[in-house]
Write a structure and sequence with these properties.
Largest sheet of chain A: 6 strands, mixed
Low-confidence stretches of chain B: none
Strand content of chain A: 25-35%
Strand order of the largest sheet of chain B: 2-1-3-4-5
Number of strands of chain B: 5
Shape of chain A: elongated
Structural class of chain A: alpha/beta
Low-confidence stretches of chain A: none
Number of helices of chain B: 15
Strand order of the largest sheet of chain A: 6-7-8-3-9-10
Strand content of chain B: 5-15%
CATH class of the largest domain in chain A: Alpha Beta
Oligomer: heterodimer
Number of domains of chain A: 2
Chain lengths: 306, 359
C-alpha cells in the first residue's frame, strides 16, 4: 500500500482549475518533494491531502484512508508543518507541543517524553519554557516542525519548512529532515532547489495544476537535458579551432574566454587533449552537471520566485 | 508635504474598507434609529395602568372612564375594589403599577378639598411610575377642574429594597457587561483563524465540538469571576438581594454563555479587523432594546417583540425579578428561553466550525 495515493485529483475554484487531475503515488518511507512555481497548485494539493479542502473530483488516500470519507482517520496519521509558522504565541514550547500531542491522543507522560526528545533534537531545550512570541524565525520554524512530529505521525507534510531562514538555520532543519528519511513518509514542498535535490528520493514538478515531471533528482536531470555540458577557460582560441569544434559537437557558446560545449556524450580528456594539440591554453575545464533549478526552469519555463 | 500623502493614503484605506466605513457611518445611524424607536416616537405604546377604586362613586367611575380615553394610558381590567388584591398582583408581576382612588374622592371633589391619588409601583421598577405621574396629574386636573387641588403621590411598594434605582439598573448593566464577551470571543476566534492557527488545528483529529468547547470553556471562569465582581460591586453600591442569589447567578451564567456563543459565530464568519465593529453594532442596540438602561414598557410593540425574541431581555427581566424577590416559578420561562438560545447558538457554532474545517 502506498502512503499517499491520488487518482485524478482535481480542485476547481469557480472558473480556476487549481489542481488538474493529479495522479501521485508516494511510497512508505519515501521523501517526496513537490516543486512548482507560485500558484502551481502545490499548497492546494497538500490542503486536500490534509483534509482541509474537499476535492472537486478524483480521490486521495493516506495509508488507504480516503481523505473525504474518513478525514479523522487520516488526521490521526499525519503531521503538518504549515508554510506559516503558526504557533500559539503566548504558550511556551512544552505547552505548544503538549497541545498538539494530546489532541492526537498522547497521554501527558507520552507527550512530555516526546516533547523532550524533540526539543533536544531541535536545540530548543534552553528556551523551552519561554513564550514563543519572543523566538526568532528559525526557532519558531524548528518548533513548528517539532509540533508536526510530536504525535509520531506516519506521514509528514512539510510545507516550505526552511522558507525565510538564514543559511545556518536552513542547514540545521535540512539535516534533521534528512535524518527522518526512511523513518517517515515525507511530502515536502520547497522553493530551494538544492534542498529538494539533496533530500528527495523523488520529485514531482507541478505546473498549472498538473504534474509535468516526476522522477528521482538524477532522472529529472538526465531526462530533461539530453546533452551534457563542458566549460573550458581558454586563452587563445583560433577561428580554425572553433570551426573544428562546431563540426564535432552539437552546440558551442563562447564569451570572454569561456567556451561552453554541448553534446550528448562528452569525453573530458579527449577535448582537453585536442585543445592542447592545437596549441590552445586551457586554464580550467569541467564537465557541468545540470542543476535541479535548470530542470525546473527548463520544464516550467518560469523563474522560481515570480 | 509627507503628511498630506500619508493622509491621502489613510483616507483611501478608510473609504475602500466597506466594513470600517459601514461601522463609522452605520453605527450613528443605527444608534439614532434605535433611540428613536425605543423612545417610542409617534407610535409609543400606552402604559398599562391598573386602578383600585375604593370610592366606588359616580365621580370615581367617571374619572376612570376619563382616564380610559387618554392615549398614553391603557387601563387594565377589571378595576380593583380592594387594594389588597392589587398588591398581590403587583408583587407577583401580573401588573406593573396601579392608581389608588381613595374613598372620599367624590366628597372631596364636592367640598373642594385637596384630593390625593396614589400611584403605586413595584419598588424595584420606579421608571414607569415616574413617566406616568405627570400624565395622571395633568389628566386629573383637567377632569376635576380648578379647584379642587390635586395631589398625585408616587409610592413604591413596601419592600426590603434599600435603593430601588440600584436594583433597577444593576441587572441591565450586568447583562450589558456580559454581552462584551461577544466581542472578546469573536476576537480570539477570528484572530486564530486569520493567523492560520485554526487551520493547523484543523489538521489534527480534533472534532468541531472540541473547538466549540475548547473556545468556550475558558470563558466559564471569566464569566463566574465577572458575575461575582458585578454582584459584589452592586451590593457595595446598594443592591439589595431579596430573592435567591443562586437563581440570579444562573441567569447571568446563561446569558454569558449566549454571549460567548454569539461571539464564536461572529468570529467564525468575519475577519478579526471587522469583528469589533460587527460585535458592537450588535451589542449596543440589543442592550438598548432589551432594557439594559431604561424600561422597555413604553417601547413600540414591534421593538418589544424583537427584544422578546432575543435572550437579553429575558436575562434582564428575570434577574431583576429574582433579585427583587420573585420565586423561581416566576422566571422559569425566561430560563427556558435562555437555555434554548444557548443550545441553538452552540449548535450553530458547531455547524459553522464543521463547514470551516473543510472548504
Amino acid at each position: 500500500m502506498n502512503a499517499v495515493q491520488t487518482f485524478k485529483l482535481t480542485k476547481e475554484f469557480d472558473s480556476l482549475v487549481a489542481v488538474n487531475g493529479i495522479d501521485l503515488e508516494i511510497h512508505k518511507g519515501e521523501l517526496f518533494s513537490l516543486l512548482g512555481p507560485n500558484g502551481a497548485g502545490k499548497t492546494t494539493t497538500i490542503r486536500m491531502l490534509c483534509c482541509l479542502l474537499k476535492p472537486t473530483r478524483g480521490t486521495a488516500s493516506i495509508l488507504g484512508y480516503d481523505v473525504v470519507r474518513t478525514p479523522f482517520a487520516v488526521k490521526k496519521l499525519i503531521g503538518v508543518s504549515p508554510q506559516d509558522t503558526v504557533l500559539s504565541e503566548r504558550l511556551n514550547c512544552w505547552e505548544n507541543l503538549a497541545l498538539i500531542g494530546k489532541v492526537h491522543g498522547l497521554s501527558s507522560n507520552e507527550a512530555k517524553a516526546r516533547s523532550k526528545e524533540l526539543l533536544e533534537t531541535m536545540g530548543l531545550m534552553e528556551r523551552a519554557k519561554d513564550q514563543v512570541r519572543r523566538f526568532s524565525g528559525g526557532m519558531k520554524r524548528r518548533l513548528s516542525i517539532a509540533m508536526a512530529l510530536v504525535s509520531n505521525p506516519q506521514v509528514l507534510f512539510l510545507d516550505e519548512p526552511t522558507l525565510g531562514l538564514d543559511p545556518q538555520a536552513r542547514r540545521t532543519i535540512s539535516e534533521y529532515i534528512a535524518g527522518l528519511k526512511g523513518k517517515k513518509t515525507i511530502l515536502l514542498t520547497t522553493h530551494y532547489m538544492e534542498e529538494a535535490d539533496s533530500l528527495s528520493d523523488r520529485i514531482g514538478i507541478i505546473d498549472e495544476g498538473k504534474v509535468v515531471a516526476l522522477g528521482t533528482p538524477q532522472e529529472l536531470k538526465t531526462n530533461t537535458f539530453q546533452m551534457r555540458t563542458m566549460v573550458v577557460s581558454t586563452g587563445n582560441l583560433t577561428a580554425e579551432v572553433i570551426s573544428d569544434l562546431q563540426q564535432r559537437y552539437s552546440r558551442l557558446e563562447m564569451s570572454k574566454g569561456r567556451l561552453k560545449i554541448y553534446h550528448k556524450e562528452l569525453n573530458f580528456q579527449e577535448i582537453v587533449d585536442y585543445l592542447h594539440s592545437r596549441g590552445v591554453a586551457v586554464y580550467s575545464a569541467a564537465l557541468e552537471q545540470p542543476t535541479l533549478e535548470d530542470v525546473f526552469i527548463q520544464i516550467t519555463g518560469k523563474k522560481l520566485r515570480d | 508635504m509627507n503628511f498630506w500623502e500619508i493622509g491621502k493614503r489613510n483616507l483611501k484605506e478608510i473609504y475602500r474598507n466597506p466594513v470600517l466605513l459601514g461601522f463609522l457611518l452605520g453605527m450613528p445611524i443605527a444608534f439614532m434609529l434605535v433611540f428613536i424607536a425605543a423612545a417610542g416616537g409617534a407610535q409609543a405604546s400606552p402604559i398599562a395602568l391598573s386602578i383600585v377604586d375604593e370610592d366606588r362613586s359616580q365621580n370615581s367611575s367617571a374619572f376612570i372612564q376619563y382616564l380610559g380615553h387618554v392615549d398614553a394610558i391603557e387601563l387594565n381590567q377589571p378595576i380593583y375594589s380592594e387594594e389588597s388584591q392589587a398588591q398581590v398582583d403587583l408583587q407577583d408581576g401580573r401588573i406593573s403599577l396601579y392608581l389608588l382612588i381613595p374613598s372620599g374622592f367624590q366628597a372631596a371633589q364636592h367640598g373642594n378639598q385637596t384630593i390625593t391619588l396614589e400611584l403605586i409601583y413595584k419598588a424595584a421598577d420606579p421608571m414607569t411610575g415616574l413617566q406616568l405621574k405627570p400624565v395622571i396629574e395633568a389628566v386629573g386636573s383637567q377632569f376635576l377642574g380648578v379647584p379642587p387641588p390635586l395631589n398625585v403621590e408616587l409610592k413604591g411598594t413596601e419592600s426590603e429594597i434599600k435603593n430601588p434605582a440600584v436594583n433597577f439598573y444593576f441587572p441591565g448593566i450586568a447583562v450589558y457587561g456580559l454581552m462584551i464577551l461577544i466581542s472578546t470571543a469573536a476576537g480570539i476566534i477570528a484572530g486564530d483563524r486569520e493567523r492560520g492557527f485554526l487551520i493547523r488545528m484543523f489538521t489534527t483529529p480534533a472534532k468541531p465540538w472540541d473547538f466549540i468547547l475548547g473556545y468556550s470553556l475558558p470563558f466559564i471562569p471569566v464569566l463566574i469571576v465577572s458575575t461575582l465582581i458585578y454582584l459584589g460591586v452592586g451590593m457595595a453600591l446598594g443592591l439589595t438581594v431579596v430573592g435567591n442569589l443562586g437563581h440570579a447567578f444562573l441567569i447571568f451564567f446563561l446569558i454569558g454563555l449566549c454571549s460567548v456563543g454569539i461571539g464564536m459565530i461572529v468570529g467564525s464568519l468575519v475577519k478579526s479587523e471587522s469583528q469589533t465593529g460587527i460585535s458592537w453594532i450588535f451589542i449596543v442596540p440589543m442592550a438598548m432594546i432589551s432594557g439594559a438602561w431604561f424600561t422597555v414598557d413604553r417601547m413600540p410593540s414591534a421593538i418589544r417583540s424583537i427584544a422578546g425574541a432575543l435572550p437579553f431581555i429575558h436575562a434582564i427581566d428575570a434577574s431583576r425579578a429574582v433579585l427583587n424577590g420573585s420565586p423561581f416559578s416566576a422566571i422559569v420561562l425566561d430560563i427556558y428561553w435562555l437555555v434554548g438560545w444557548t443550545v441553538v447558538l452552540f449548535a450553530t457554532g458547531i455547524m459553522l466550525f464543521r463547514k470551516t474545517m473543510v472548504s
